[in-house]
Amino acid sequence: MTKCQKLSRKAAWFAGRGASVIALLAATGGISQANAQGAESEKTAGIDELVVTAQKRAQSAQDVGITINSYGAEQIEKFGWDAPEDVAGMTPGLFVSPGASGGAAANYSIRGIGLNDFTTNNSSPVAVHIDEVFLPSMNFLNFGLFDLERVEVLKGPQGTLFGRNTTGGTVNFYTRKPTEEFEAGITAGAARHSRADIDAYVSGPVSDTLSYRLSGFFRTQSGGDGFNSFYNREVGGIDEWWSVRGQLAWRPTENFDVNISVFGGVEDQEGNTYGDAFSYDATGYVPGTFGALCSAYANGDVIKNGVVTGCVGFEGVPNDGDFYTNNPGVVNNSRVKSFGTIVTGNLDFSFATLTSVTGYLDVNRFDGEDADFSPPVLLDIFYDLDHQSFSEEIRLTSSETTPLSWTIGTSFATDEVDAVLHAIWPLFGGYFPNIYTQKTDAFAVFGQGEYALTDQLSILAGLRYSIEDRSFLGGTQAHNVPANLAPYEIPPESFVAQLAFADDSVRAEKVNYKVGVNYHLTDSAMLYASYTTGFKGGGFTGTWTFNQNELEGFNEENLKAVEAGFKSQFLDNRVRWNTSFYYYDYEDIILQINENVPQPVFRFQNGADAEVFGVETDLVVAPTAGLQFGVAAAWQDSEIVDVAIGNEALLGQQLVYAPEWSGSWFVDYSFPIGRELESTLSFNGKFSSDYQAEYPPTPVSTLPGYATVDVRLALAPLSGQWEVAAWARNLTDEHWILYLNDIAGCCSQPALINSQRRSFGFEVTYRFGAY
Fold this sequence. Notes:
By secondary structure, this protein is mainly β. The protein has one domain (3-276, 323-769): Maltoporin, Chain A (Beta Barrel), CATH 2.40.170.20. It has six helices and 41 strands. The chain has a 22-stranded antiparallel barrel. Strands 3-9-10-7-8 form a five-stranded mixed beta sheet. The relative contact order is 0.14.
């Protein structure tokens, strides 16, 4: 079947489904309208309205022609989210995988648009914002969640209003703000491995024009799911993980306000334990040809059976079948210090509001890992880096929304990362530091407007002009030193050679745009369609480089998206049903290519083009005041249709982290206990079919699907002053792989990070004041 035939067949499939749902929406919309007209003002069962700022203004999510998954504070607390990867558990199509070492960095992917990078000098194609401030690299993307107002996941390119690095979409976190009345609360919890958590906040007025909010959390844990048989102990403990955020809100007049947020914290923990495809004993190292793939690895038997002998220069010891047991000589560890401040100001001119968002972020990261996963010192690596970022956005947003609503603005951002990546690598001569500085400057002007042609029909258009300049200075050195020295003990006279060095830059100058149409069948049912473009900037390979070609810069990747869908709410707001259909033309994809020629090579290149078709649907039902349930599902068909020379093996392959099927579900049931108490029983889960974890695909990198179940039982008075709750996560003890990087060319086997095992815990919450 030709490419045109495949496109025609899929287009017909989409069109047929679209015609069916239009007819259904017209019917359900009429039911909703009739019920609304006959309803009384008394409170009935229903689904709460979701208010989002996906278009830089407060709107109902049901009125925005974008696929949005939005979660409020109550849901976040109920789900027990404490890290960004938890958001992916309830969001079909979103993957958040912890990176190397302690998970100090994270990889985000939406609908298969992502980047599997463990060196973290590159930006993710899924933009992440905290209170509207862009986090410029993966060094910033793994943080503790606390005192949040809401989380919004916008799927598809958001190139006009959010700009660069949004080819996949954006994940936006919004914190709770200072209040005009006093309120406070504290939550204490405990779980497996002597886990202890404390979250607290206090907020209130200082004067008639000034209010404050102080919040934070502290977490500690004595061990984890991993077990190191070499040291005969659990690994994965948390020495300390805490963060504090202080805010001041000043409103001297009715038309002017400023919010100042200052935050910081420390994350010091043993890292994500690499699952061992096979294990070694302390004396099992046998010198041999390093980097030669054995047949067991090539056939995928390393993971299937766990039995390898003489593979890649090692004497293998059969794995006991436990993915959580390994025996590296260095326990993965991570220490991250972060600091930041965000200043947001609004000035109301009656016809429009001028908004300024200023952000400064600073992250210091030091973490280490045993990349050979074995007791001998074959490859131990350490990341030592500082990353600072400054950004400013100024925009003017119209106050009136009919017939024309508009937003215009400009933004500037600069960030710099100074990195030293240490590699102790005896098989190649000793010590290899990769030392570099990377600086990025970005500028943009943008505008977007929506015009109502009639009460039902509106058209939308947006445009953004962006410039991104990224410079790179540095490369990898070779030192001839004993392998047992720590990196900071390496004498300067040990220098042998500069293996690769670059003093170079890349520039992306892009115009992105969006056109769309929204049609309201009724007040509670809408059809929408849009054409949107987005890009992710280019850059440089930030890992170890052994020849000059590896440091050649790569260019930006681009994505064009067509999306159509409907949003509806009916039966007195008891049912909400949203569905979207999309097609992506994904060009110049930035790929991490792992090679062994003969030294291991990890490099990024613009290596392929792909096409993606998908459907997502989200159904929530609230039949009674105490019962609510929902299911969200995504189907996707992705295919690489063109490749650069040398990447022919990728033709016809699916994108990474793009399963054909994925989804989530939940059930909440609240019931009274006597006259003063209420209990809530909550179930939720997620599921995924098989998917690829990296390029090029191998039997090892094809990850199996999974399905999970979480449960929570809570008791609270009707006043909401306190709550006690018990919970279980991964109730069925399902195992799946969160992260894979096939680095067999240098490190003997793939790096696997496993899911968390079944865990149980409880928590107690007490609130004061106007809770």
